[in-house]
Amino acid sequence: MQRIKKKLFFSIPILLILFSWSKGGTVFGCYETALAFKNTCNGAPYYAEDWNTFVTRDVTCNQMQICPVGSTGTAPNCTWKRKLCVTCSQQDGQLFMRIQSNGLPDHCVPGKVALQERVIDVKFRFDPPPVTFFQKPSNVDALNHMICDFDSSSESNLPSDSMFRNYGEKTISIINMVGIAANGVPMYNGNSPRNTDYFYPKDWAGSNQKNVDQDIDACLGAIQPEDGVYHYWFLPPCLYHADKIQTSKYCDNVTDCFTDMASYSKKIYTDFSNTWTLIGMAKDGHKIIGPYTAGNSEFDCQALDICNGIRDSSSGNYTYVAVTTFPYVVGCYGPGAYVTFNSVCSKNVCSFGSSLFNNLILFGLLAILMLHSFY
Ligand SMILES: *[C@@H]1O[C@H](CO)[C@@H](O)[C@H](O)[C@H]1NC(C)=O
Ligand SMILES: *[C@@H]1O[C@H](CO)[C@@H](O)[C@H](O)[C@H]1NC(C)=O
Ligand SMILES: *[C@@H]1O[C@H](CO)[C@@H](O)[C@H](O)[C@H]1NC(C)=O
């Protein structure tokens, strides 16, 4: 059984590549995705707004230790303005998405560092067909550097197919920003400056002794002390059901979060929205979706490639899946290979053990592919 399973595991990605390499995102798909963001502007999804005049939405929290810079009120009662506008445009026959956000969250955040409004303004091709790009590490060490390094998500590692442009502030630390969540909050990769998993670290030859001490809140985010930028690192439990989360507390002060962060963050998706959910967009132009499929079944982490992505066998679009095993959201800019070895910088990796469920998924995929090849 084990042998057969392994064979399938290798052949499926190859078949997927052969059958669905060339398609890319559609205008309708871009509009649909843009509208799934929690936009505050009137322009979405058609036209970008002037940064200084676009419509904002107020967020009020009565449990802040310190109010965000430029907000109104006196702690604990603060009101700040969110700005978010996600738009699509066509240029030279190519489809682009632009995300303009001031980065401020739509929920409370604990801590004594003040949140700061920033100009986040990025543009990239929407769902570009990955023609020239394929991440394939030849050994464990190469895989480790590819997905464990703190700066693995930097712009220099983006595929040129994405045509990524940063029109926003260049000074904010977006080196490990992998994308932007549906509420306009930046998402970082799951790596610490130590080049290990931030949450379940394991030292390896490429790790160092840098201090990784940052207070993670109950939304599994944190405020970057140097620039006041709020960001998520993990499948964010507060994206759609913040009202069910003690958003003004640190993770350590919430029993479920402290005990098992991974189950805690997934539980909110299991309990309230176990269907296809947009988590955000990655900087390379591909969608990041939640841990469930449109058919309410959970993605098996074994079905994801080394970058944490999966190729939709029918449409050919490549999508990242936010799961609760390392590398959590976007491990590298994919598509990537399927390998038999795991990265060594995390204690929380997807296990390669076989399960009936997993085999069923693989057989299902194979059946779909065979049908494809006959018609
Ligand atoms: C904050 O608001 C609450 C009502 O929501 C009020 O009772 C309290 O006095 C306010 N505190 C400050 C410092 O304004
Ligand atoms: C967390 O718990 C500690 C100890 O009980 C307390 O001092 C602190 O104020 C709490 N902070 C937050 C933000 O939850
Ligand atoms: C993938 O792309 C197709 C068009 O090629 C679109 O209809 C579909 O909704 C996309 N799938 C997802 C999951 O976005």
Automatic annotation (TrEMBL):
Bilayer-spanning residue ranges: 356-374
Q: Does the keyword Signal apply?
A: yes
- Where does the UniProt annotation place the signal sequence? 1-24
**Which residue intervals define the domain YHYH in the entry?**
169-294
UniProt keywords (A-Z) are: Membrane, Signal, Transmembrane, Transmembrane helix
Q: Pfam families in the record, alphabetically?
A: YHYH (PF14240)
Per its UniProt record, what InterPro entries does this chain match?
YHYH_dom
What is the protein name for this chain? Answer: YHYH domain-containing protein
**Which species expresses this protein natively?**
Stylonychia lemnae
